[in-house]
Design goal:
Layout (H helix, E strand, L loop, with lengths): L9 H13 L6 H19 L11 H4 L2 H12 L16 H18 L24 H8 L1 H19 L2
Helix pairs in contact: 1-2, 1-5, 2-5, 6-7
């Protein structure tokens, strides 16, 4: 089914209607944009053969666990992108979370239980912290009020020095 048009597919028509209902208020503009993005990626996954062709038969098959696992794998590898990306080999963890959230929202709206695959969350790598450079930075980092007081004192001393 790679390269085949999916506009007449029952699952795509049902998905389009579902997304439009999900994008109505009180859904915010940002979430609506994300829901449409995920819907477009699901369509692209069907077109490019990244998910089983049987997923085109119904919304339930489109939201089946194995179909969603294939979709998320393809999306995670960057295979569903339409534009070039800074990191073409993989999607960011934030993008993957948004995809999963949107799939849950759409599944709930359709009355379908969404089962997502377990994914390996990347380990967070902590970088060393740069030490404060000088008393001015140190005063600012200790407390805002101390920094304000020191700034006022410095401003006042400048004014005193101007008259000399």
């Amino acid at each position: 089914m790679a390269g085949a048009p999916t506009t007449a597919a029952p699952s795509v028509e049902a998905l389009d209607a579902l997304v439009e209902r999900a994008c109505e208020p009180p859904t915010g503009m940002s979430r609506a944009k994300q829901l449409r993005w995920v819907s477009g990626e699901l369509r692209t996954a069907l077109e490019r053969g990244a998910i089983a062709p049987t997923a085109a038969d119904s919304l339930a098959l489109l939201f089946a666990p194995d179909t969603l696992a294939s979709y998320l794998t393809a999306a995670g590898r960057g295979l569903l992108r339409r534009k070039p990306a800074a990191r073409p080999g993989h999607a960011s963890p934030a993008s993957m979370r948004v995809r999963e959230d949107c799939l849950r929202i759409l599944g709930a709206r359709a009355g379908i239980t969404v089962t997502l695959p377990d994914r390996d969350t990347p380990k967070v790598e902590l970088r060393p912290v740069v030490a404060a450079a000088g008393p001015r930075v140190a005063a600012r980092t200790t407390s805002p009020s101390a920094w304000c007081m020191k700034a006022r004192m410095a401003q006042g001393s400048r004014r005193l020095g101007e008259g000399l």
